[in-house]
Amino acid sequence: MPSVIYHPAYQTYAFGAEHPFSPLRIEMLLELLGVLGHPVQTVAPEPATRNDILTVHDEEYVRRVEALSVGEEVPDSENFGLGTPDNPVFPGMDLAARWLVGGTLHAARLVCENKEKRVLQLGGGLHHARRKSASGFCIYNDLAVAIRYLAQQGLWVAYLDIDVHHSDGVQEILYNDEHVLTISLHESGQYLFPGTGEIHELGTGGGRGLKLNLPLEPFTEGESYLEVFEKILPVALQRFGPGVLLVQAGADAHYSDPLADLMLTTRDYEQIFRRILEYADLYTNGRVIFTLGGGYSLVAVPRVWAILYLLINNLPIVHDLPADWVLKWSQRLGQKLPATLHDPNPGYPDLPRRTEISHHNRREADRLLEATSRFWY
After folding, report:
1. Minimal CB count within 10 Å: which of 69, 70, 218, 255?
2. What is the pLDDT of residue 377?
3. Rounded distance, CA 300 to CA 263, Å?
4. d(Cα 185, Cα 59) in Å, to the nearest integer?
5. Which regions of the chain are under pLDDT 70?
6. First and final C-alpha spacing in the chain
7. pLDDT at position 348, please?
8. Domain that includes residue 133, residue range
9. CATH for 370
10. How many CB atoms neighbour CB 78 within 10 A?
11. How many CA atoms lie within 13 A of 99 on its CB side?
12. What pLDDT shows up at residue 344?
């Protein structure tokens, strides 16, 4: 079975009880898989070393994370994105973040050493962390560390980000890297944090034409999302010829997510995950690493990631959820959870502007293919 990377220390990456980036997401997921009859056998990583972190982050930034982690005063911390509402300081922050980086790096090593083809990292996906600053709940950029390692081992790396927010940190760190293709589908930065990810952001130097961004209209539904996803992904992967696919599988494009406005359902996520696995088989000889990422609806996130786990392991998609699990978490969260793995179909009222939104997304996908085509031929 594919390796699943996890360590209980991941739960220490916690910004506080009221912060949306909640460790409860993984607790719910692991418990759900267990009661479904699939208790997860995990592989424990080691935390990333300081030198691992310095492959993508500046020394002056890392020093400040370390100092704040042990309670030292850092007067200019907010200049580095630390001590802000998005990234409040907490004791042990440096080590907690290094555990997540270590998990994604361990997944990369398993693939490089031909020990695994499919790996699921039950954490990470901290795609907003920049070279010199924290951002968007992300302290260290585990994805960039793993990608750099993979590239240094001689692999051409395709990075796919389906989080609802643009993968600005990964893009910034790897913007001129000719060995790395990045593809981000996200709600347009005109409406959503971090305000980046436009089509003209194509990379520089040897990386020019290898940084692909597809900004989507708010209230994009699954049909339109899948249409442009299937329009872009096979073309880009076939042209680039990667040796491995690394996926940030954020679940915050779900329609119930409180921080964004895309309208994917669990059925849409199932189709997206199936396509990704098919594309990995076609273009990377099956080598694919999944990390988690954003996702702030506790009603949706454990179910979305449970579907990912089941598909990676070629297990059947169940219909009913165990009643005891639903009752326990409904009471604990103070909101009613669905009794089924999939949402009701479609799960939300009919939306206005559906045709207009689909046309807009289709035009954006065409623009992206046109903008990149001159760099491929």
Report:
1. 70
2. 58
3. 12
4. 31
5. 377
6. 39
7. 73
8. 3-376
9. 3.40.800.20
10. 12
11. 17
12. 85
Count of CB atoms within 10 A of residue 41's CB? Answer: 9
Place of tokens 């910034």: 172
State how many domains the chain has. 1
What's the pLDDT at 352?
A: 79
Over its C-alpha atoms, the chain yields an Rg (Å, rounded) of: 19
Tokens in use for 194?
Answer: 């971090």
Known catalytic membership, residue 128: yes
Token readout for 89 is 């300081």
Q: Which of 77, 195, 184, 188 is nearest to 134 (CA)?
A: 77
Choose the catalytic residue: 106, 127, 128, 254.
Answer: 128
- Torsion, Cα of 108, 110, 111, 112 (10° steps): 80
- Per residue, what are the HEC states of the chain? CCEEECCHHHHHCCCCCCCCCCCHHHHHHHHHHHHCCCCCCEECCCCCCHHHHCCCCCHHHHHHHHHHHCCCCCCCHHHHCCCCCCCCCCCCHHHHHHHHHHHHHHHHHHHHCCCCCEEEECCCCCCCCCCCCCECCECCCHHHHHHHHHHHCCCCEEEEECCCCCCHHHHHHCCCCCCEEEEEEEECCCCCCCCCCCCCCCCCHHHCCCEEEEEECCCCEHHHHHHHHHHHHHHHHHHHCCCEEEEECCCCCECCCCCCCCEECHHHHHHHHHHHHHHHHHHCCCCEEEECCCCCCCCCHHHHHHHHHHHHCCCCCCCECCHHHHHHHHHHHCCCCCCECCCCCCCCCCCCCHHHHHHHHHHHHHHHHHHHHHHHC
